[in-house]
Structure prediction request, 221 residues.
Amino acid sequence: MPTYRIAPSILSADFARLGEEVRNVVSAGADIIHFDVMDNHYVPNLTIGPLVCEAIRPHVQVPIDVHLMVKPVDRIVPDFAKAGANIISFHPEASDHLDRTLQLIRDNGCKAGLVFNPATPLHYLDHVMDKLDLILIMSVNPGFGGQSFIPGALRKIAAVRRLIDESGHDIMLEVDGGIKIDNIAEVARAGADTFVAGSAIFGKPDYRNVIDAMRTQLETV
Ligand code: DX5
Ligand code: ZN
Prediction:
């Protein structure tokens, strides 16, 4: 069985109590904190930046996975690295120089990821597999939590799984958008190993119940 990781997205957390929220979700079994950064330019919503990342950093020991939905990308990368991010991923459409941005993230001591929207082609991967630590497949259009999983993402996840296996590189395959207890096993079967879930976890009163139920589903894969 692959190592499966559950990455709650704090987009659906109570922002007035964020320190407590991240501590609670980690004690409930979260492996990673997924941190959605939206700029009201690349996506039509505005969320949180490096100051908030720095504020939650002392509250948790698990990796902070920063999902940048911003354009341009490069200027903000060192700020997130200084704020304690461990993984930084971005959308290829938002950077003019993919190779440079990936290198910049690693030079700043973080793992580097590329994110694919539902209609973004995978050819962006052609020349950068050796510079990637994570590939994130969006199963909703980015910008908002609480949307429904787009089933076409499953074929794309399977295609990326093949590319990763053929490459021989150690690359996490993360999926983001509409992940729930009742579809996580299917997404894992398609080849994903890391699962972002916002509303499914923070929308429920008992985070441990949800995370445990997700793990039980993953055991069936
Ligand atoms: C969407 C974000 C997601 C979102 C997932 O743009 O990247 O991380 O918070 O939320 P749910 O799990 O509610 O679809
Ligand atoms: Zn995200």
Observations:
- The CA atoms of residues 2 and 44 lie 35 Å apart.
- The beta strands are 5-8, 33-38, 64-69, 87-90, 111-116, 134-138, 172-176, 194-197.
- The chain has a mean pLDDT of 98.
